């Protein structure tokens, strides 16, 4: 494949890109362009597209010449026409979507469907073959690329980074991912920074700093930068060929184990909207921000614009590129890769095809022994750590544990018995558990953890992201984008199911002992619940055994986002393993041993979700049992939050009959919740008994204080729950006024004691152990 | 101030820091340390603290010698003991909190209160004098620093960046802020990258790359890096003095206008937990991650640890630092800055003290003329642009407009009639509206926009952040942290009110014509509503005049986060300016001209919030008026979302009586909402009529399609609303079955037409203009 073929492929891709943005009909320009051939509304992004096409065409040469396994990530994914054009030229598109055949009619459909009602999105999207990266929100291309490269030693992930995207925080941090990659065991990421100079409306930072600074920046990031700069296609083809040959020699050096070799990256500097209209209505367009979307806008109404569009399209010499039937000519396709070497058909970009189920040890083997409920305690995440250790050991190339430097803090340290933190920078004698091939990815960037994991999952592997609960909000927007990917991919038959994105949120709102108010936010659950019920799952296991059962379930699931909130501090063991499995399977159930309703109609329901709220609920039930032994109290614990929704809203939802049986439809329900209280109302507002539900939860009160003080500050403590019961059970006040006063006094005493004695360990023990 | 004084201040601050983490009593070590002097639970972070103290002590010398106006941002703000120690040593702490006097008893209280119930947070927090930066979530220190420096030409903002924080995305992007600062008109940011080598449990990236790469990295970022590295205090003091002298000479050069001079930054490499215990229980601690929190843990129970703690504290030679009464000695304080030159008392760090109200033009002058409602249309944000243009012109050093390259896209371009985009990098001839002193800050990083604006507001200025609605989720976590700052600051009497943080969210979910599904997410409102009602406000003005009135209101407010969602596409003008003001003041009201209930009991209420849902609601009302003229329909528009909440939950909340008067307590309410539908349920679940509220909103259906197709995909379209009315008004079905079928047919026709004709402009006009 030489310049001639590369250039032909490039021109063909450019032609198809312009056609997608503009044309409804007359795809091959067999007749002069008329207004009715043009879409009534022009939606799409031209500016980045010729650069994406240029890189793709040149990388194809490398694939063919070296037999290289390669995938392509288009950071400027709003250049959707480019990726679609590549897939069509390579034949993949027609294989997947037979309606869009490789002929004139297929080309007409290809053009028409783009950014058109009932058609395809304007961005690189799940619908686009060869992509693992939706080009909507910017910032994550390079993190996705590294995620894809992990544990794929023979793969090269070419990643075009737009200079707009390069201004984002997540992207700026992603360059340092090269310190977390093992040249022996992982693939290579080849970043191509595409400096086309402009964002939507202004210049970009990296395009406007002196080149000497630009080079230093990337050397500082630990790369060997290569500059490819210009606007004359003939010269640029030669330069790019030379550069890629050098780059792949350097890659070969690294793969051969050359110590200290820095990975190459390319800076590609071309005009924005390259090969498009130079000037429109007297204003420069090519090489400026004006070519970001549609360089010619009034094409239907303006004969001059229409003529310019036709000239522009004919400038690619379509007659050389497509035969009379609209098929790409031999020049365009002969030298291109075949089969799964085509980047549009590489199975890594449809990771479900490569997915191997995890080899999971029997989680029951890690159970804590529970002779009777609520007598001993465990640290749930520490128990889980043992299970994860063996998951890692059993799946050495198929599972990674991500976290922003919190694996030990979240008490998952058992994993370090079998593996290390991935680290490919300097290691000192005093260091512990650092190695290039470590399975634990720790970087103080939630963005990188999330982006790496997404890239890893989308290419068919498995993982878990452990994070402080409050700071998972840092990736709210990334979660949204991944959730949208899953929502869309579910409806695309050729996208095979991938492993779920599993979050373990620990160091949660109720136990921020070292950190206080800034670390208290359980609101990620609210963000998660906005996405489609077909993909989101939320679990709040209250003890170690329910956490084990939940984790096993999540690691086996596909195409979901599973959010598991679990504490790292000691909590009471409530369920034997057998009971835990049953409880998790039900998702919500009565704790009979803590209830006094004898299985019959209760006077009041104490519901709870989350470990600390459950502890306080159990303590409140104990107080009630002691002081009001004839009050029929039912304690209900909810593990699977989605069970609360109506069955019509979520596949896990209970029927109204089930809900009423569990919670009653007419009795007061005091619901002690881990998160912001209104989430429970949102989930239950259609239930018969909703008017009787009173929810306690985090109401944004907190500081650095004791755990029990935190509970009291937010009224989720046992004493307040007892007061709530007395206030809400009809006629109870008359005979329990004294108890109510006693509870109020206890709260006051506890607050004063706390303020005087800090958290005296004896005091802590006293309130943790109600049984 | 020479080495002796600097060292004394440093030792005193270190002593006070250790005391805060460990001691309940015996603050001056006048007697041997006993277990009961030590806190029962040790919470805090030692590791970063001596470095923070070192920088502070050295910067004080510069302040005194040069009369420099300077503030200090502690990126590793979990080193709270440091900032508190500085403020106490400088006298500020006792001035603000007289209980914590500058004597032995005051020192005892200082120690006891730290990280103690009823005391102060363990981080640098709003409670800490001299800070504008809560040290909770990492990543924002440098963006805050730049925000503080804007329009403060004489100020130096010293910003310590931890090497953990440096791994985050927002921080990595923040280094490039130097391209957005005007050396003439803005102050100088002096970044001090503190490489102490470790995060919580592992090494940091920047501490483990070769020094040559480190230097290139910062030269690439456009700085002049200076390395200060070592662990011998005597040598380090000399090096730091020499370096700071050089650095401030370079700063003087820049301020004197030397073209192309790059700003200096310092790399400070010291051991983590410097001057703390070298080794504990046979393991190295100083200089390792083990000193991150408390280097000695079992101090109450372990006599060896207790003795080590006493040795450690005595190593600072407290007798030289504090007199018999516990006051700092002359050596410590004599040479330190005085008055408002003290960094702990600099008014820039309590911005409300410097706040000047905006000079606001009369927003009524920008009104669009509305002769009768819903006959003409305007682009609301374009109208707002005229107002903002004049706000900028009238407040040349007191207001900035932030946005990720979307100011023009969001149709606020009128601002460029009076100002430019801030840009201090290369400018080409073809560029438009770039200048070093531009008031519009555009960078493709929502994190930077938010961080800069926070820093600007916290130092007493005003601003507005305009952003695509979906991508504001990128700063969810930053919003959370700023909201928590405001929540805390409200309760701190000496913190003066600051200008509100104003968001303008445009290019919203319903009009993502160019971009589709990835750009559709109205869920920021759900995140916002989780914060305390005392600080959050959400507005959905449905037309241009209500947007003007809302914007004026928000720009005058203090200590809030105001979220305004407004469209940039043409929408019907509904309110004259006078009506708009009244409607916004009420926050929600009946559109009598669109209603057919004659001011009496309606049969059904059509409620709406947001521009597109309002348009569809009005169209539905028109259809009903035509086809069912005797049906009494009331149309209610909600501008101020908080009005829906009970008065007990939010200060804007309506009483139940008001709510019932507006919405009825017994009639069907079809609520057409801009965002995810359950938010309306969450706000109204306690209302009498809640059981009758049926909410339509965005339910995560979308792609690149026409605006009306988007409405149909999510069932918020006029036809579906009419169907909802027929389904819900008792007995209506019997006589309106035909209309219902007609509506269903219309939907089908519209969908087919859309798919065939894309968005034919005539079709668009047809559905946009129901009147």
UniProtKB/TrEMBL annotation, chains A, B:
It holds the Pfam family XFP. Residues 568-769 form the Xylulose 5-phosphate/Fructose 6-phosphate phosphoketolase C-terminal domain. PROSITE patterns: PHOSPHOKETOLASE_1 (PS60002), PHOSPHOKETOLASE_2 (PS60003). Belongs to the XFP family. It comes from Sinosporangium siamense. Keywords: Lyase, Thiamine pyrophosphate. This is Probable phosphoketolase. It is an enzyme of class 4 (lyase). NCBIfam families: PRK05261.1-2 (NF003617), PRK05261.1-4 (NF003619), PRK05261.1-6 (NF003621). Its EC number is 4.1.2.-. The keyword Transmembrane helix does not apply. GO terms for molecular function: aldehyde-lyase activity; magnesium ion binding. InterPro entries: Phosphoketolase, THDP-binding, Transketo_C/PFOR_II, Xul5P/Fru6P_PKetolase, Xul5P/Fru6P_PKetolase_C, Xul5P/Fru6P_PKetolase_CS, Xul5P/Fru6P_PKetolase_N, Xul5P/Fru6P_PKetolase_ThDP_BS. It comes from the Bacteria. Its cofactor is thiamine diphosphate. One of its GO terms (biological process) is carbohydrate metabolic process. Residues 2-353 form the Xylulose 5-phosphate/Fructose 6-phosphate phosphoketolase N-terminal domain.
């Amino acid at each position: 494949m030489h310049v001639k073929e590369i250039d032909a492929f490039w021109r063909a891709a450019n032609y198809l890109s312009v056609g997608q943005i503009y044309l409804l009909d007359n795809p091959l320009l067999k007749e002069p362009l008329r207004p009715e051939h043009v879409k009534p509304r022009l939606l799409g992004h031209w500016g980045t597209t010729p650069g994406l096409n240029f890189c793709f065409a040149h990388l194809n040469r490398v694939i063919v010449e070296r037999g290289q396994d390669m995938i392509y990530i288009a950071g400027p994914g709003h250049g959707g026409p480019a990726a679609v054009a590549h897939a069509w030229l390579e034949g993949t598109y027609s294989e997947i979507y037979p309606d869009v055949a490789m002929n004139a009619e297929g080309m007409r459909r290809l053009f028409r469907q783009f950014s058109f009602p009932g058609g395809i999105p304007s961005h690189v999207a799940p619908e686009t073959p060869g992509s693992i990266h939706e080009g909507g929100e910017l910032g994550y291309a390079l993190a996705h690329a590294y995620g894809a490269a992990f544990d794929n030693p023979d793969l090269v992930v070419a990643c075009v980074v737009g200079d707009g995207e390069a201004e984002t925080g997540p992207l700026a941090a992603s360059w340092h991912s090269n310190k977390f990659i093992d040249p022996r065991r992982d693939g290579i990421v080849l970043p191509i920074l595409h400096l086309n100079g402009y964002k939507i409306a202004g210049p970009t930072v990296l395009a406007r700093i002196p080149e000497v600074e630009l080079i230093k920046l990337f050397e500082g990031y630990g790369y060997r930068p290569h500059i490819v700069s210009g606007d004359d296609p003939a010269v640029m083809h030669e330069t790019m060929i030379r550069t890629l040959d050098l780059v792949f020699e350097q890659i070969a050096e690294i793969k051969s184990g050359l110590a200290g070799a820095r990975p190459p990256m390319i800076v590609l500097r071309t005009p924005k909207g390259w090969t498009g209209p130079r000037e429109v209505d007297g204003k420069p367009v090519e090489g400026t921000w004006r070519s970001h979307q549609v360089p010619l806008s009034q094409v239907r109404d303006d004969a001059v614009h229409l003529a310019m569009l036709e000239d522009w399209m004919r400038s690619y010499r379509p007659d050389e590129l497509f035969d009379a039937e609209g098929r790409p000519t031999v020049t365009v396709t002969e030298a291109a890769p075949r089969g799964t070497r085509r980047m549009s058909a590489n199975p890594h970009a449809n990771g479900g095809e490569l997915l191997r189920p995890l080899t999971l040890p029997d989680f029951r083997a890690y159970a804590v022994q529970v002779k009777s409920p609520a007598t001993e305690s465990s640290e749930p995440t520490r128990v889980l750590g043992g299970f994860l250790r063996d998951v890692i050991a059993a799946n050495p190339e198929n599972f990674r544990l991500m976290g922003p430097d919190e694996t030990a803090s979240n008490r998952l340290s058992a994993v370090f018995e079998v593996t290390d933190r991935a680290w490919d920078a300097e290691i000192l004698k005093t260091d512990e558990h650092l190695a290039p091939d470590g399975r634990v990815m720790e970087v103080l960037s939630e963005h990188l953890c999330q982006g790496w994991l997404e890239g890893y999952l989308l290419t068919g592997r498995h993982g878990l992201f452990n994070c402080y609960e409050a700071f998972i909000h840092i990736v709210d927007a990334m979660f949204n984008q991944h959730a949208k990917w899953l929502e869309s991919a579910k409806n695309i038959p050729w996208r095979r199911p991938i492993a779920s994105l599993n979050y373990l949120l620990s160091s949660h709102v109720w136990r921020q002992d070292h950190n206080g108010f800034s670390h208290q936010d359980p609101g990620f659950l609210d963000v998660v619940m906005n996405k489609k019920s077909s993909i989101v799952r939320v679990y709040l296991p209250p003890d170690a055994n329910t956490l084990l059962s939940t984790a096993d379930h999540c690691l086996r699931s596909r195409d979901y986002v599973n959010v598991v909130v679990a504490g790292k501090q000691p909590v009471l063991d409530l369920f034997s393993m057998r009971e835990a499995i049953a409880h998790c399977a039900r998702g919500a159930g009565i704790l009979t041993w803590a209830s006094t309703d004898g299985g019959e109609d209760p006077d009041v329901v104490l519901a709870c979700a989350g470990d600390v709220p459950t502890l306080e609920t159990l303590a409140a039930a104990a107080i009630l049992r002691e002081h009001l032994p004839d009050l029929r109290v039912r304690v209900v614990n909810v593990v699977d939050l989605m069970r609360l929704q109506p069955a019509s809203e979520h596949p896990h939802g209970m029927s109204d009959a089930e809900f009423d049986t569990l919670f009653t439809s007419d009795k007061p329900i005091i619901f002690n919740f881990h998160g912001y209280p209104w989430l429970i109302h949102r989930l239950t507002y259609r239930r018969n008994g909703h008017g009787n539900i009173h929810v306690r939860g985090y109401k944004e009160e907190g500081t650095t204080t004791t755990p029990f003080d935190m509970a009291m500050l937010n009224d989720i403590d046992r004493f307040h729950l007892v007061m709530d019961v007395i206030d809400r059970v009809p006629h109870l006040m008359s005979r329990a006024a004294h108890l109510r006063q006693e509870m109020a006094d206890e709260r006051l005493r506890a607050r004063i004691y706390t303020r005087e004695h800090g958290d005296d360990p004896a005091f802590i023990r006293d309130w943790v152990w109600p049984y």
